[in-house]
Amino acid sequence: MRIYPIETGNIKLDGGAMFGVVPKSIWQRTNPADANNMIDLTMRCLLIEDGKRLILVDTGIGNKQSDTFFGYFYLSGDFSLDSSLAKLGFHRDDITDVFLTHLHFDHCGGCIQWNSERTGYEPAFKNASYWSNQNHWDWATKPNPREKASFLSENILPIQESGQLQFVDVAKPALQSGSELGFGIITVDGHTEKQMLPKLNYKGKTIVFAADLLPTVGHIPLPYVMSYDTRPLLTMEEKATFLQEAAANDYLLFLEHDAQNELCTVGETDKGIRLQNTYKFNEVFH
Fold it and tell me: Could you write out the DSSP letters of every residue in 119-166?
């Protein structure tokens, strides 16, 4: 197995929304805001090369939305999903599986693209199976008012229409140790119903793709929960359990949205679990 970080582009989101009840005077120490109160975030995906499988975890925001839509998020960066794949010698047609932690637009927007005539949509990975789970799929396709703006039908329904959609059975008791995709999956429900976090054993390390349970290192303290979370108190419980496990077992946490840090570790302190170290991926895995 070999794994690679895949940069798909940067966005900006409102810092207050990203940190909920935590005051700006505190959260801006780790995530400084611009004049519009926006903080820098990235959409970092993970590529897993395992035998004949080439698995992409999440896909970024994609490029099919309107200029007005993208204008809300200040897209930037000198890279894209395609350029990041090409840098490693891959093409999107090589992808055999697309694993979606959840179906918010900044995680799954790259799944679907315009067709060549721009008259409809088609899968952006024509040779891939797309993996979600039944609970989350139902949640996303019948969205609650709080999340409706994050679940865009054009990102989601064409996956099923293509015939390429498959579901992980999140009820399996062995799910944390291994799924049909060859890695463990941790499910959490605070941010959205049945978000899935891949857990991999790689070169003697355990890596967890933290997705939106832990967007940045600034979110490690338990009360630092996004306003986007549907069940913030549950997020705190899930995060407490997860961080205790991560600290006890020296997990490497792969950060999807942290614009500065690709990986981090956490450790126990007199204030609870806190950031221990940050790393660039290539610093750990040469």
Answer: SSEEESSTT-EEEE-HHHHHHHHS--TTTTTTS-HHHHHHHHHTT-EE
Of 5-19, 21-35, 62-76, 251-265, minimum mean pLDDT range: 62-76
Query: For residues 151 and 192, is the Cβ–Cβ distance under 8 A?
Result: no
Answer yes or no: are the C-beta atoms of 18 and 214 closer than 8 Å: no
- Residue partners of 72: CB distance under 8 A and separation at least 6: none
Tokens 């049945």, residue located:
194
Q: Over range 57-74, report the average pLDDT.
A: 93
Contact call for residues 199 and 176 (beta carbons, < 8 A): yes
CA distance 280 to 257: 14
Is residue 216 a contact partner of residue 31, using CB atoms and an 8 Å limit? yes
Residue carrying the six token digits 């008791």? 173
Among the listed residues 256, 240, 185, 272, the one whose alpha carbon sits nearest the alpha carbon of residue 264: 256
Residue 139 near residue 194 (C-beta atoms within 8 A): yes
Residue 175 has pLDDT above 90, yes or no: no
Dist CA 85 CA 98 (whole Å): 14
